[in-house]
């Protein structure tokens, strides 16, 4: 049992000694703002006259050297001062690194060495404050800065944030202004603002409005602000007016179409009546053509009627319908003078009946019987 205990005690002692050694050799950190100059001093060393050479290295690469009064700089941004410090001009983000300094005496022996870590940070910008009265929320925001810390205060109450560039706070009262501060190890900016919000009426006054019954929850002034009600009224009025205009346009369109159809149908009926009238007048004006200029004897004098001789009757020509586009009907040619009957006064004589043409065989038989 004694051997394991001794081994455990030795292990704990070794760990403790290694922790102390690492703490004692911790590299110091120097922070500087971007765009400015910085001087890295020899920390923990008192300058001596026997120091003949000073050498500065960046991540193991020499950047500047001084031997007596002669200064050697491998880069323009670096310069070794008379007391051994290193000046760096116009810092940029790539200057962040671990720098090591080496001191030698006249015999070339090293008398001192040390390391310094340089951090180049961006300056913080001025924070911005905004608020929302409907939610009673205030926002403090930082737009630019490295490793910045935000602090929001109202009277004696303060709120901090370490990593975020935004603070949102819900206020309970607005009796004091708000102050927002942004800072890091190289810069600090602050902004103060007084929040003003319209006072909300909590009396729940009723507002008369057509379309909603009195006492409707939407008319409570706290639930529905005055600006929202005005927008709602404008929206309803616009929708109603647009619907009315649309209905009027549709009605006018229907009326125009119906009038056009009626006018077209009336025109077609008139044209059809004109065609029928012209056709009727032409058919009524044409009469049967007489076959002889002598008048027929009365049936009592001639005796019993003989069968008519076979004769061919010219087919009647069908009247041709006039063209729709013809405005003036063609004039009817007068019959020849030999065919014209003498005019007589009084009512016109009755028209003779046109007997139907007998069959050809019956007509031939009758002709043969009558011939001697």
What does it look like?
This protein has 372 residues and is α+β, with helices and mostly antiparallel strands. Among the domains are: 97 residues, Sandwich (Immunoglobulin-like); 66 residues, Immunoglobulin-like; 70 residues. It is built from four helices and 16 strands. Strands 1-9-8-3-4-5 form a six-stranded mixed beta sheet, with no helix packed on it. A hairpin with a 2-residue loop joins strand 3 and strand 4. It is elongated and about 170 Å long. It starts with a helix and ends with a helix. The C terminus is likely disordered. It is a single-pass type I membrane protein. Pfam families: C2-set (PF05790). GO terms for molecular function: signaling receptor binding. One of its GO terms (cellular component) is plasma membrane. This is T-cell surface antigen CD2 isoform X1.
Keywords:
six-stranded mixed sheet; signal; 372 residues; single chain; glycoprotein; four-stranded antiparallel sheet; disulfide bond; Immunoglobulin-like; disordered C terminus
Which structural class best describes the helix and strand composition? alpha+beta
What is the name of the CATH architecture of the domain at 25-121?
Sandwich
* CATH homologous superfamily caption of the domain at 25-121: Immunoglobulins
The ordered H/E elements are: HEEEEEEEEEEEEEEEEHHH
- The count of helical stretches stands at 4
**Helical content, roughly?**
25-40%
- Give the number of DSSP strands: 16
Strand content: 15-25%
* CA-based shape: elongated
Please report the distance between the alpha carbons of the first and last residues. Answer: 181 Å
The major β-sheet equals: 6 strands, mixed
């Amino acid at each position: 049992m004694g051997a394991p205990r001794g081994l455990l005690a030795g292990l704990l002692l070794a760990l403790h000694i290694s922790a102390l050694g690492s703490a004692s050799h911790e590299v110091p950190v120097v922070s500087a703002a971007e765009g400015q100059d910085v001087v890295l001093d020899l920390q923990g060393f008192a300058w001596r006259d026997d120091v003949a050479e000073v050498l500065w290295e960046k991540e193991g690469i020499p950047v500047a050297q001084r031997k007596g009064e002669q200064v050697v700089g491998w880069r323009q941004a670096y310069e070794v001062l008379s007391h051994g410090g290193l000046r760096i001009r116009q810092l940029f983000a790539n200057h962040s690194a671990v720098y090591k300094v080496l001191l030698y005496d006249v015999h070339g022996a090293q008398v001192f060495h040390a390391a310094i870590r340089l951090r180049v940070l961006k300056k913080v910008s001025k924070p911005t404050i905004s608020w929302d009265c409907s939610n009673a929320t205030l926002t403090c925001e930082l737009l630019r800065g490295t490793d910045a810390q935000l602090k929001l205060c109202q009277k004696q109450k303060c709120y901090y944030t370490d990593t975020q560039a935004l603070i949102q706070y819900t206020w309970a009262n607005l009796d004091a202004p708000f102050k927002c501060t942004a800072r890091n190890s190289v810069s600090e900016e602050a902004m103060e603002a007084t929040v003003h919000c319209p006072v909300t009426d909590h009396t729940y006054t009723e507002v008369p409005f057509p379309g909603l019954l009195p006492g409707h929850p939407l008319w409570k002034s706290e639930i529905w602000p005055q600006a929202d009600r005005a927008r709602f009224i404008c929206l309803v009025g616009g929708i109603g007016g647009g619907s009315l205009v649309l209905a009027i346009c549709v009605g006018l369109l229907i009326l125009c179409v119906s009038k056009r159809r009626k006018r077209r149908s009336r025109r077609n009926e008139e044209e059809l009546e004109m065609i029928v009238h012209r056709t009727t007048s032409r058919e009524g004006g044409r009469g049967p053509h007489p076959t002889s200029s002598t008048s027929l004897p009365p049936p009592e004098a001639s005796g019993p009627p003989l069968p008519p001789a076979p004769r061919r009757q010219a087919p009647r020509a069908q009247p041709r319908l006039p063209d729709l586009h013809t405005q003036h009907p063609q004039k009817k040619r007068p019959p020849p003078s030999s065919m014209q009957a003498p005019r007589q006064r009084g009512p016109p004589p009755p028209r003779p009946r046109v007997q139907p043409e007998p069959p050809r065989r019956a007509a031939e038989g009758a002709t043969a019987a009558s011939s001697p």
